[in-house]
């Protein structure tokens, strides 16, 4: 029997080990349905932590870490708290989970033949937020989940590749995100989930944005990035690079918090750059049956969801999928 993307989960559900490629494969069918036979072509899993030299500044004859120097006391405390939670999750798994932290990956294979596959109930909105905002306002239904992975300002990403589009200023991001009709298209008991980077100004920005939509944060999920053997890809206490990204989850002010929604640490081995874990099945445990989702800045389609963005079909292309023999499936 094919293994689930959830390789391990603590009894209370607050810690889980997740396989990213399998989560994307599962997302091509509705929760409860049998996954498709085809597999996602992935990157070689990381086997050793990255070496990240901590940049230093010299002030008054003393070397200080540049990362710490630029952060407010509140941001430094938040990093310490996240680091403590991450370390607790790693310690817990070291005692309870004794296996590889990812499934065997398909690194190459013949592409799937035929047209681009559209999952059941999936709707593609291929275009920019500016171009399609009016269309969404007029034709889209009300959603139980609106998830977004905004292209936050990031100098290192801009240096890496011209194919990963980011905005240059948070002021530009504010104008961009207000093209999403959150107030009119989020159900009364719905959730908004926003991936953020570790820059403290971005968390402050998101909290102000949520407040402008009359939303309030109710939970935070942390994707803790690890090697195939479960080591964090950067030191937990690194000032320069953190081995995690966060998902801020919010609800309407005055609405009840969905039962089962709690902080989570999702331990997962990274895949190709910009691929996030697909959380369709995790939200299925929290939201109503057959809930409707909208993913903004999407790079693939998800069964039962609307997907919106310039690169919405990027990883849906047949070149990223293969159909190996059943014997090759982990």
Task: Explain what the structure shows.
- Pfam families: MT-A70.
- Belongs to the MT-A70-like family.
- This is Methyltransferase-like protein-like protein.
- Keywords: Methyltransferase, Transferase.
- With 330 residues, the protein is an alpha/beta fold.
- The protein is built from nine helices and 14 strands.
- A hairpin with a 2-residue loop joins β4 and β5 (62-65).
- The chain is globular.
Shape: globular
Please work out how many helical segments DSSP would assign. 9
Strand order of the largest sheet: 1-2-11-9-10-8-7-12-13-6
Overall SS class: alpha/beta
Uncertain runs are 157-164
Q: What amount of the residues lies in strands?
A: 15-25%
The number of distinct β-strands equals 14
Protein name: Methyltransferase-like protein-like protein
Organism: Emericellopsis cladophorae
GO biological process, one term: methylation
Pfam families: MT-A70
What structural keywords apply?
alpha/beta; MT-A70-like; SAM-dependent_MTases_sf; 10-stranded mixed sheet; transferase
Task: List the topology elements.
Layout: E1 6-9, E2 15-18, H1 20-26, E3 39-40, E4 56-59, E5 62-65, H2 66-70, H3 73-96, E6 123-126, H4 129-139, E7 143-148, H5 155-160, H6 170-177, H7 182-185, E8 186-196, H8 200-212, E9 215-225, E10 244-252, E11 264-268, H9 280-284, E12 293-296, E13 305-309, E14 321-322
Parallel strand pairs: 2-11, 6-13, 7-8, 7-12, 9-11, 12-13
Antiparallel strand pairs: 1-2, 3-14, 4-5, 8-10, 9-10
